[in-house]
Amino acid sequence: MTTVTVVEKILSANDRLAEQNRARLDLAGIFGLNIMAAPGAGKTSTILRTIKALTPQITIGVVEGDTAAVTIDADKVIAAGMPAVQINTGGECHLDAVMLSGALTQLPLDQIDLLIVENVGNLICPAAFSLGTHANVLISSVAEGDDKPYKYPNIYRGIDALIINKIDLLPYVEYNLDYFRRGVELLNPGVATFPISCRTGEGVDSWVQWLLGKVGK
Amino acid sequence: MTTVTVVEKILSANDRLAEQNRARLDLAGIFGLNIMAAPGAGKTSTILRTIKALTPQITIGVVEGDTAAVTIDADKVIAAGMPAVQINTGGECHLDAVMLSGALTQLPLDQIDLLIVENVGNLICPAAFSLGTHANVLISSVAEGDDKPYKYPNIYRGIDALIINKIDLLPYVEYNLDYFRRGVELLNPGVATFPISCRTGEGVDSWVQWLLGKVGK
Known about the structure:
The structure is a homodimer. Chain A is α/β, with parallel strands linked by helices. The first copy, chain A, has a single domain (2-215), classed as P-loop containing nucleotide triphosphate hydrolases (Rossmann fold, 3-Layer(aba) Sandwich), CATH 3.40.50.300. Chain A has helices at 2-27, 43-54, 72-79, 97-104, 148-151, 153-157, 177-187, 204-215, and strands spanning 31-37, 60-66, 84-88, 114-118, 135-141, 161-165, 192-195. In chain A, strand 2, helix 3 and strand 3 form a beta-alpha-beta unit. Chain A starts with a helix and ends with a helix. The interface between A and B is large, with 40 and 40 residues.
């Protein structure tokens, strides 16, 4: 019982800080996006494709969450010409509102239209922690198989858009798109869904149009 | 500080139960294997390939860990003719020694030579919890990319063998095997490594021979 109480207090404190993050983004006129996915589903690749599609129309700030002290992803974003901040969670399996709050102080918020937060690669823990962003996006790679909505239902319930990445691999993997989508539909009926390939660029336009509508630019 | 203390107590209690699990397996003459991986790397596929290769030479019991109340994986193992028990972690991001202890009571331990535990799909949390098994194996899929050892170092440090799965996809993904292996070598020098394809069966023999050596049959 003690442990449960501690967890409840942490979640509640996190929610209050998430509200503060949201207010800070709103004040600066920034739309905040939280991208979640399993390791290697293509979070960074999707962010790089999105930057490429939206430059120079809008300015994107990126927060990169990693469990280790590596800057592989942040370096790629900076090389693409956008400001990025790396969060090292120190082994924690998700980002939280405290971490994002710290990262926001290091970004030029007055120059940014869209903030993209790349969460830690994990289909379980990130679903439980609000960050204060305006939308949650999940990326699922077809190489992961078609049963993921059935196995990791919580993360599918709380998302505003779903990207199905690596569709260029469909000819080479066993993947039933109908089965996958039926699973998603049970958890999150009608969720906006974008099959894309970061490798070939296929489908990226539809995703970017949806995002532009949210950013309002 | 309070939270840290609670976590330490949980870990210590887990380690004591892990020792009990180990003693139980040793008494029954069972070799216990803990398989970890990101979602969709091919844990169940590897288990099914292993069962196929080792039947009827040895009897394998399987414990399937999932965060949700689904029996997709356990059903596949039972269809392959082996006893399986499903653990629903109730949203938890890893198995622990308590969960395994409960599952062991539901398996016919006197008939089993090899116990395979399929952990929850996650590259972070499972690394922190001993189960009492004799060896940890990590499966990494080439579709996840070649930078995973750099991004999720903890899980690579504690493994006894590494399976690189889905090598049939190598012609279709950007993946530098040398870069991947350099990362692994920094964390776990000389770890036994088996590139395989569960789809085509390539490389499975070497993995199974290593495993047979451990089981001692």
